Structure formats: structure tokens, C-alpha cells
């Protein structure tokens, strides 16, 4: 029985922080918080642009949600806030909705944040986080790679200084934009290319410094001194100063219904990012990671973001890794990091006016291009061709449906489940026979399509015997009965790990078919839970004692002694 104090600590993980500080001290959290805070602000600005939202929305999403997730998360060093993939999903969803009607994209993003948070909160409270495991690696590989490519392509207009028309077909919009290459702003292109090159060089030369912040500060200063905006360059412009005000989001039922599928995908995908970070970190720390508690904390973080005017958030893999490697051991580091957001919102927003959008676009491309992993596709294809096909279809459909990229995820999920279901319908089956004149214990593998003259026909059935496989089981057993003149049909059932009422009915049908052929039906290797299910049906009494055999050879030796016809 869990003591009330321990239960409270499980619900409020930040109560464990003092215990960890006694072992390692608090200085690691402070240093890590400063380190993460220096890149949190520029990334929040960049991901707001990626989502097609005003810059201050990204800063709002980096404040209160980070605090809530740090206080309530079971993996306390996860850095929560705006991230690339969730921002892309947000932007693609709200832009697709706004293109169909007069919809405020900020209001849509806030509602999307609220819905995805509620979904995660419900999954965590009901302890059904296992549903997230339905997203297989091929689906995630195809979706993430396509999303990364779309992120890169979506930043080309900002780097080129060309306006991109938004519709329900992103790729067509992109091709239309490419026809306007003659209108590209050279100064925007220069700022974008130089920023990208500088980030690559600095990452190699000074990997421990906050290179993104350094580049953004220098670029903003140069843009101000060269009057970048007056030469046609696009800048962030006005950012309202001050902390976000708390308030209920504006509810629009029809808009919420339109955003529901996108909210579900964001809830699933964003938590997969959290899961990846948490597994890596807890493996090194030995910390217990509670999936359902993390779902609750991430759901509440999104809800907090919605109530403070922010966008959907998630755990950042890169910032979490940096947080941990910099010495963080509790969520106090996140509180330190958010101080930089507070300082920016209160005092530094006027200095961000001159920050070129091309620079932010280069930052986004630099962060996400590593998600393009063609080697993962090749590895999946070599391992299992069907998985490779699922990954490829998910990749193609995600690109084709952009900006509604969540459709690609749902198609990949549906295909993976259908293919898995199809594979489960046909479990591995082996036909063997035991000859009358052969006194050895060796069983000979035979083809079910050939006529067999055997005393005992053995069918090894490896898989659950449920409504999914029942027809295949009946067909397999009936084929063995019809194609042989065996006195006994022995089902080697060690591989049967599940049984439902449809499976029991299938056994009953096979039993009746065997009776008509004057053939005895027997089982060996039945698992304990399968025995208990059969005992609750009348089949046990009809088949007894020929269900008690432990091994194939034990069954064959006992059944060879039976010469009388089977009991009716």
C-alpha cells in the first residue's frame, strides 16, 4: 500500500527536488538553466515564425508551460516549450483552417493547444498512455522526415524575401512562389545564407557557446545599422512588452471540431518527442519515469499555454539533452531558464524589432535539417520490406496533404494497423507427421497440399486463437484432416497465447469435422491461461483427457496406443 506522503510525491514530483539537491547540490541546475535559457528565447521566436504566429506567442509558450511541466513531470529535466515539429503541426493546421474561412489564426492556435492538452490530460488520468505505442517506428520515421523537409521548404520564402500564398495545397503554393524568383530580395538571401553558414562554423568551433543567441544578436545589430528594413528586408517588428495575461480561450465549437483531428495528432506526436528524451535521460540517471504522470504534466503544460495565450508545446529533445549535459538534475533548471523569457518580455522586446525573418528562417533550418535521415529509411527497408513501404507511404502522403500533414500521420497509422492485422490473421503454421512404422521420436515436416499417409498428423499453430485467426485455424486443421488418413490430429498449441469465444467455436468446428472423419482431436503444450478458458466451456469435457499432454512426443507416444474409434 502506497503511503499518503509517497502518493503526494508521485502526484507532485517537485517535492523530490530537495532530496536530489542533498546529493548533488543546486549549482548544476543553475548553470543548466542559464545555458538553456540563452537558446530558449531565440528558439521560441523562431518556432513562432514556423507556426505562422506572432513572435510573442512563442515567448508566452516558453514561460508558464515550462514551469508547469517542470513542477509536475516525472522526468524533471525535460525542457518543455516550443519545438519544431509541434510548431509545424500547429502552423499547418491553423493555416489550413484559416484558408477555408475568416478564422483568427492566433485564436485557432490557442484552441488547438487547449484541445491537445486536454487529450493528453485524459490519457494520463485514465492511465491509457499505452495508446501512444500504436505509432510504430516506420510511421514516425516517414512522418518526421516529411515534416522536416516541409519545415525547410516553408522557410524558403522568408530567406528569399518572397511572399508565399497560403492554400490547402502547400506544394502547389511553393511551385507558384518559385515562379517569382526574379522578385527575390538579395539582402534577405544574404542574411539567411550568412546566418546558416555562421551557425555551422560556430557549432564546430565553439560548440559550448550559445551560438544561436550570438548570431541573432549580431544579425539584429547589423540589420539596424544597415537599415535592413528600409532596403526591403522583412523584420519581426513590434513585439508587445510585458508578461502574458491569464484568461479563458475564446470557445468556438465549430472551430474546435475542425481542429480535433489535428489536436489528436499533436497530442500523440508531441508526447513521442517527450518519450524519446525521457528514455535517454532516465537510462543514464536511473530515475523512475512514469509515462502517465508525464502525460498529465505535458497536458497541463499545454492547457497552461492556452490560458496564457501561447501555442502548443512539447518536450524539446535538443534542449533537454543540453539541460542534462549541463548538470541539471531537477526541474529548477527550467525555472532559471524561464527567467530569461521574463527579462526578454519585460525589457528586451524593443531590441528585437530589427531581427530579420530570414535569420530566424536560417535558425529553423539549421535546427531541423538533422531530422532528415534517409539512412533510417534504408535500414527499415532492409529489415522488413513491409515496414519500409509503410514509412514511404507515410512520407509521401504527409508531403501530398500539406499543410494538412496530420492526414499523413493518420494514414500511416491506419496502414500500419491494417498490415499488422493482416499479418496476425495468418500466424506461422507447420505440418508434421509421425509414421506408423517409425519408432523414432523424429517428426517429419510435410506439405499440407500433398496426400499424407500418417498415423498422427501434427499441426504447430503459433499465434493467438481469436476472432482474427479463427478462420485460418479452421482452414488449417480441416486441410490436415482431409489431406491425411491420420488416426489422430494433434494440435501443438504451445504458441497459442490467447483464446476468445470465436477461437473456442473454431475448435468446436474442427472437433466435429474430425469426428466425421473418425479422427481423434488432441492438444499438447496448452498454456495455463488457455487451459483455464477451455475449462469454462463444455469443450474441455468433450476433449478430455487429450488436452493434458505437455509435449508433442509425450502426446504421440500416448496416442499411438489408441486404436479404438474416438468417443462420440
Summary of the model, kept short:
The protein has 2 domains: 27-206 and 214-229 and 247-416, no CATH class; 427-559, 2-Layer Sandwich (Transcription Regulator spoIIAA). It is built from 25 helices and 7 strands. The chain has helices spanning 4-11, 17-24, 27-50, 55-61, 64-72, 84-100, 105-125, 137-154, 156-160, 170-178, 186-205, 211-225, 253-285, 291-307, 317-325, 332-348, 357-368, 374-383, 385-401, 406-425, 470-483, 501-516, 528-535, 539-543, 552-559; strands spanning 79-81, 314-316, 428-434, 444-445, 456-462, 488-492, 520-524.
List the helices and strands and how they pair.
Blueprint: H1 4-11, H2 17-24, H3 27-50, H4 55-61, H5 64-72, E1 79-81, H6 84-100, H7 105-125, H8 137-154, H9 156-160, H10 170-178, H11 186-205, H12 211-225, H13 253-285, H14 291-307, E2 314-316, H15 317-325, H16 332-348, H17 357-368, H18 374-383, H19 385-401, H20 406-425, E3 428-434, E4 444-445, E5 456-462, H21 470-483, E6 488-492, H22 501-516, E7 520-524, H23 528-535, H24 539-543, H25 552-559
Parallel strand pairs: 5-6, 6-7
Antiparallel strand pairs: 1-2, 3-4, 3-5
Helix pairs in contact: 3-4, 3-12, 3-15, 3-16, 3-17, 5-14, 5-16, 6-7, 6-8, 6-13, 7-13, 7-14, 8-18, 8-19, 8-20, 11-12, 11-17, 13-14, 13-15, 13-20, 18-19, 19-20, 21-22
| Distance separating the two termini | 53 Å
**Poorly predicted ranges:** none
Q: Which overall shape is indicated by the principal axes computed on the Cα atoms? A: elongated
The average pLDDT value, as a whole number, equals 88
Calculate Rg over CA atoms. Answer: 31 Å
Give the strand line-up of the largest sheet: 4-3-5-6-7
Count of domain modules: 2
